[in-house]
Amino acid sequence: MSTVTRDSVPADALLVTYRGGRHPERWGRYGDCFSVSVERAVTLPEFVFAFYTSRIFKAERLVLRSLLGASSTDEQALALATGTENSFAVWRVGDRTATQLLMCDRYERTRSWFRVVPLDNGSTRLQFGSAVAERSGPQGSREMGFGLLLGLHVVYSKVLLRAASVGVMTNSHPN
Question: Of 43, 50, 87, 167, which shows the fewest CB atoms inside 10 Å?
Answer without folding.
Answer: 87
